[in-house]
Amino acid sequence: MFFKPLGRQAAKPAQAPLGAPAAAPPVEQATINVRFFTDYPVCNYKCPYCVAGHGPPEGRGPSPWDEDRYLQIIDNICKLPFPINIRIGVGGEFFISKVLVEGARRLGASENVRVLNLITNLSFHPKQYARILAGIPKEKVALVASYHPTEIKNEDAWIAAAQELGTYYDLTTMSVAYPPSLHKLPEVKAKFEAAGVDHFVQPFIGEYEGKTYPQEYTEEERAIIRQVIYSRHDWEFLLNLKRPGMCNAGFKYLFVDPEGKVFQCGGAQHLKPLGDLTQSTEITFHSGPRPCPVSVCQCDTENINTKVFEDHYAYLDKNQHRFAYRFAEEAKEAPWMDEWTVAY
Question: For the packed helices 185-194 and 219-228, what is the interaxial angle rounded to 10 degrees?
Answer without folding.
Answer: 0
